[in-house]
Amino acid sequence: MSRIKTFNLPDLGEGLTEGEILAWLVKVGDTIELNQPIVEVETAKAAVEIPAKWAGQVQAIHHPEGTTVEVGTPIIAIDTDPGAGPLEAPSTTATPSSDLPTPSAASLAAVEVAPAEGMIEPGLIGGAAPGGRTAVLVGYGPRTTAAKRRPRKGGVPAQAAAAPAPAAPAPQPVVAPVAAPARNGQAATATGGLVLAKPPVRKLAKDLGVDLGTVTGSGPLGSITREDVQQAASGAVAEPIATPSVTTSAASFGTDREQRIPVKGVRKLTAENMSRSAFTAPHVTEFLTVDVTRAMKALDRLRGRREWRDVRVSPLLLVAKAVLLAVKRHPMVNSTWAGDEIVVKDYVNLGIAAATERGLIVPNVKDAGRLSLRELADSLNGLVQTAKSGRTSPADMSGGTLTITNVGVFGVDTGTPILPPGESAILAFGAVREMPWVHKGKVKARQVTTLGLSFDHRIIDGELGSKFLRDIGDFLTDPEAALLAWT
Question: What's this model's pTM, rounded to 2 decimal places?
Answer without folding.
Answer: 0.57
